Amino acid sequence: MATPPVQHSRVGSTASIASVATQTAEQPDSVPRGSLLKFQAVETVTAADVPAEKSSPTSEVTSPVAWGGSNKNGGGGDGTAGRVSQMTSRTTGSLFSSTSSWTFEIASMVTAAAAVAAIIAVLAYYDNKPLPAWPTGITLNALIAVLTTIATASMSVPLSSGLSQLKWIRFKTGRAPLADMEYFDDASRGALGALSLLFRARGGVAGSFGAFAMIVALLLSPFSQQIATYPMRTTEVEGGAATNLRALGYELRLPGFDELAAFVPILPIKSAVYYGLFAENNKPWLNLPLTCPTGNCTFGEIETFAICQSCVDMTEYMTRSCVGGTPADGNMTGCGWKLPSGAALNTSAEVFSMTSLFPGSISGASYSTIMKLIFMGTEAFEGPKDVLKPWAKQCTLNACVQRLNSVITHGELNETIVAEYTNTTVPNTRDAIDHLEPIYITSPVTGTQYNMSRSTVLAWQSWFAHLFQNGTASRNAEYINRTLETAPGSPNVLVNLTVGISEGNTFFDHDVVQAFYWNYYEYPTGIEMLVSDLAVSTTVSVRAVNNHNERVNGTTLVYETYVHVRWGFVAVPAVAVLLAVLFLALAANRSARAGAELWKSSALAMLFHGLDDSVRARFGDLDGLEAKKKEAKEVKVKLEGEEGGGVLRTDRVY
């Protein structure tokens, strides 16, 4: 087919160049292996752009086929071969010029580093601050996710380009299995290919380093989400009206009905005592009237007048005692036990007893003592029935001053005793009663003097003497027939109450004995627990219903979510960026030292610099991709330059 001559034309004053290529009329089947496909070009230029002496009537452009190498077979006899070589060389230089650079990769790396730096800066700003509520509705986690995505995407550019460039360096600087081309390509596409390159150990030092950096970059996203956590904490509320109560003393009582009970407690005190004995919730302080708008308040340490309790073990002071004296035969099996204070278990059938003592009947009682309760028993806690193991405890109620750490959490008051102060002076009790001398207690911390009027003490003691009168719990069958009618003068038989405890019928003199008996067998420290509830419940009433109390202002707290940064997790994004920077520098340095063109991941580079004919011939007879992949492991090639571009030439390993 004749090639039309170049036409020169001018359209206005604008110069234009247009090329139209048409494939030659020969059919593809007639093109020999390795020959060049011919393209026809029509070039239109202005007369001013092309000097007359350099104008050519015909311009013919040639290109190798997809696997193309050098044209060994073709070549026109009309002198077009030189023009083909010039055009091919000119085309290759424009596509893969040595003037190419790493600018885009460096810009991407800077973007990734800036995104990670932004994550660190944002978290450093909000660390230990309340969780931000931005008007757009975007959360802090969402912002971190966006910045992480930007960093991950930006880091993939230098990592992918660097790994892709390493394959060209590998084949330019020496012969390598053709399969390495695919290994490097797979590694440049993601972490799975990078992991494969590491396991195959085909990347060399630089390739393995790049593959490792690619894998670490995959961890950037999950670890970035682990940097910030959002725990809860309490913070003060300005203007919160949190109030508690404390007592400076106690004087409330009512006149009695006779000289034996000249004063009696007010009803709130009686109610508090019954609540402490029978409520069984172990939280009598919850009845204290407080103010806490949010349900979470703190009052620091509060000093208040209170009722304290203490219990001591008296078992070592017990001695065997027989009513009516020691039996003539010396057999003391049916006898009981007693204490120096006079408290006693009359017989071994009395498994539990309670004895109340008051300062008038106690020698050596302290100035602040209100009442002592002595408990005795014949069975151990959780011990077998009818196995004798006598024990005794003495518990004391006395006026005192307490320092309490008071906190309200989720609407529930919790007060811890920090210290207790009492007056341990042993007075002349008779004189104190005759002159109605108050109980004075001075705080060693604040110097404040607290007092409880003597008439109030007498009111409590007269009522306690009736409520806590001596009583027993017995398993003797003769108690079944004892009633108020048959023993009207006995102070020990007030109620016949039968319950099945310790696998037998137990009979109680009154309800208070039953309460302490039940607690003893129910809890390891049941008696101490019940006496403590009694003291705390009474203290609550003293603080709440009193003409000598005052309010204590506290701090109102509210729960808030705040940002807590776990800086250790920042190491992963920082290391990922550092590895990417180092790998980019390494790849650029290797490329410069090898004198390799910056083809990176360009598909055109593969088209322009394919295999030579002999290599393609070896793969032509193989069926299936897997067979060709297997053969590629055995074929070593090297990128060799030649006129018109480089070609991958083989060196087979046998």
TrEMBL record:
Residues 10-27 have a biased composition (Polar residues). This is Uncharacterized protein. Keywords: Membrane, Transmembrane, Transmembrane helix. It comes from the Eukaryota. Residues 1-35, 50-85 are annotated as: Disordered. Pfam families: DUF3176. The chain crosses the membrane at residues 106-126, 138-160, 205-223, 567-588. Residues 71-80 have a biased composition (Gly residues). Signal peptide: none annotated.
